[in-house]
Amino acid sequence: MENLQQQQQEQQQAGSAAGGAGRAPSLGPAVKVPPLVRSQHYVPATLNVQTHAPRTYFRAIPLLGPGRAEAELVDQLHKLQLRPGHPSLADDSYKNPVLLMPYISDMGKIKRRALSRLTRRSQREVGKAIRRARAMGLVPIMSNQDSAGWRLR
């Protein structure tokens, strides 16, 4: 018992010698916590240093497709001057499902321009042609994996 009292007195003397009389011992390096905002609701469980620390934001990957020059080199519809979004007597590519299938995902969604590598104009026209082909029943609406419908796994 006397040993504990001696240790406490030594700690108090060491604290007062360092100029920290009456203060609690430091718990680590000082962390800047932003002030609480007035008239904002806080959940008590979230009032800690980790949730109040400044966040680091990561730059999002751009969702746009290729540039014009790159797309014109890769885009077969542009090279062949096919316009599936504009039906005409000379061009019946809008009702050719084999031409449209590479631009449809496994789940039946229209692929975005970053994946299809089409020009802006061709991407709009392919989307329009796919929607028309779905309405006519040439292209499956949900999935192109199995023509009989959904498979059980």
Automatic annotation (TrEMBL):
Protein's organism: Ceraceosorus guamensis
* UniProt protein name: Small ribosomal subunit protein bS18m
Q: Tell me the Pfam families matching this sequence.
A: Ribosomal_S18
InterPro entries attached to this UniProt entry: Ribosomal_bS18, Ribosomal_bS18_sf
Q: Where is the composition biased (Low complexity)?
A: 1-16
Record key words, sorted: Ribonucleoprotein, Ribosomal protein
Give me the ranges of the annotated region Disordered: 1-32
Question: What PANTHER family does the entry give?
Answer: 30S RIBOSOMAL PROTEIN S18, SMALL RIBOSOMAL SUBUNIT PROTEIN BS18M
Q: Does the keyword Lipid metabolism belong to this entry?
A: no
GO BP, sorted A to Z? mitochondrial translation
In its UniProt record, a GO molecular function of this protein is: structural constituent of ribosome
> Which Gene3D superfamilies does the record cross-reference, listed alphabetically?
Ribosomal protein S18 (4.10.640.10)
GO CC terms of this entry: mitochondrial small ribosomal subunit
Tell me the protein family, please.
Answer: Belongs to the bacterial ribosomal protein bS18 family.
